[in-house]
Amino acid sequence: MPAAPATSDDHKKEGNELFAKGDFLRAAAAYTRGIKAAPDSHVLYSNRAQAFLRLHKVGKALEDADRCIALAPDFVKGYHRKASALHALGEPARSEEAAELLLGAIERGMEDRELVRLGVTVGGKAFAARLDAFRKAAAPVAPEEGDKPAAPPPPAKKAAPPSAAAKEAPPTAAAAAKGPTEQSLSEGLGEQLPWEAPPEDFAAGCLQPILKRFLAEGLVSLPAVVYLQPAPPAKGSREEPSLGQISIKPAFASPSTLAQCADFLQGKAAEARARSAVLFVRKALIEYPCVWKEKRKQEWPFDAKADGLFMQCESHNDRVVYFTQLTESKGGVCSVGETVQLDPATFALMPRLFAT
Question: Does this model's pTM top 0.70?
Answer without folding.
Answer: no
